[in-house]
Amino acid sequence: MNALKFPKIGSDMLPIFGNLVDLDSDLRHYNRMEAPVTYKRTLQRKIEELNRYFPCIMLTGARQVGKSTLLRDMLPEGMNYITLDDYVEAEKAKEDPQGFLERYGLPLCIDEVQYAPELLRAIKMRVDAERRPGMYWLTGSQRFHMMKGVTESLAGRIGVLELMSLSQREMLGEGEEAQPFHPENAETLAKNGKVCDTTTLFERIWRGGYPQLIQYPHMPVRDYFNSYLQTYVERDVQSLSQVGNKSAFVTLMRSAALRTGQQLVYNDLARDAGVSPKTAAAWVSVLEASGIVSLLQPYHSNSIKRLAKSPKLYFLDTGFCCWLAGCRDAAELARGPLAGAMLETWVYGQLLRAFTNAGMEPRLYYFRNHDGAEVDFLIEDNMCLYPIEVKLSNRPVPGDLKGVRHIPAGLNKIHPGMVFCTSQKWEKLTPEGMAAFPISAL
């Protein structure tokens, strides 16, 4: 694999944003070199289900995770498709929303609808006049920026889903039939899954799950993410927030990447980027709104008095996170100081995808009290808490989950827990049911 180096962030970096090259055209010559492999997305089942009941479907997610490809591959017969990435079409939609909808008819798929939010009210009027399933499919790369308009205009008329970059099961070609992870079926998944060695696992973590990088395995990661960053800052960031100092914003992204899996401290990010804590908080909100990072909240119940209040920050794609953090290749990542944090970030992303790909709201938390007792993840389901600890080890021991005994149960039963580790087999660690789960089986 080609080596990569994160450039020094400073005023000398600003010119790269002045000559923006669109991601698709910038990398087109790589695409001609090899035939792409297409991947079935697990979320397709949920889209098909909601389309039978809702007049509108909204698919959100970060730029280049495959939203357009997924919906275009699924277009029902007779449905038209238009993208508002086209500036001309976006302006037409803004100036005359009703006329725009009349021109393209029904059913209609509108890609990147955030560039013409005026369409949402016009869509509401069309939906209220006809009210039948499958009228409009919408996509957008700015989840929170759009949701206010969606909830005001289309409440009760729209099914909202989020697509992330490829899960491991999707990358392995099991997107359609893969059984989603749940703690109750973890043993079956571990025994039936395709586990791999640690070297292969870190290759997957380092490259990440953006479909174009997986479809074209010889595409240089450095070139892809260089172009991705430019497009992201110029299009998504600028439309969400008028960021004046782009170099400082990129520095904050790099600082956040180096702190993935840690509790969020705005003062630290602000100091690194040379901005105020208030600005750092606003910029983290931009990263969250555009699907780059996710904030994991601490577990709490009425009986818990001494829990940490800050969320933990995770990047949603480990490939982008590794590139921002300056990891040149998978071998360097595996032996470096970020190995454990990136492994935990990857696990979080896979668990999150298990929920969202099933159209479920994630009930995922972490636990830490002021005495230092902690558990990486807690899944809350059916009045039960399932503790998960992530360890960069192939020899887990019961003591890895010592933080579990500090969790106040409240109304929930507490499962003995699992240690997610780099071993290649499921193994019971205690008679009570504590077990080791091979991470690569996720």
How would you describe this structure to a colleague?
- With 442 residues, this protein is α/β, with parallel strands linked by helices.
- It folds into 2 domains: 44-162, P-loop containing nucleotide triphosphate hydrolases (Rossmann fold, 3-Layer(aba) Sandwich); 177-441, no CATH class.
- Helices cover 41% and strands 15% of the residues.
- The protein is built from 20 helices and 15 strands.
- It has helices spanning 15-18, 23-26, 28-31, 44-51, 67-74, 87-95, 97-104, 119-130, 143-154, 168-171, 186-192, 198-207, 211-215, 221-240, 246-258, 266-273, 277-289, 318-325, 330-335, 339-356; strands at residues 56-60, 80-83, 108-111, 136-140, 158-162, 262-263, 293-296, 312-315, 364-368, 374-381, 384-390, 413-414, 418-421, 427-428, 435-438.
- The strands form 3 sheets. Strands 9, 10, 11, 12, 13, 14 and 15 form a 7-stranded mixed β-sheet that branches.
- β10 (374-381) and β11 form a beta hairpin.
- It starts with 14 loop residues before the first helix and ends with a strand.
What distance separates the N and C termini? Answer: 25 Å
- Shape annotation: globular
Q: What is the residue-averaged pLDDT?
A: 86
Structural class: alpha/beta
The number of helical runs is 20
Helix content: 40-55%
> How many β-strands, per DSSP?
15
Radius of gyration: 22 Å
Overall number of structural domains: 2
Main sheet characteristics: 7 strands, mixed
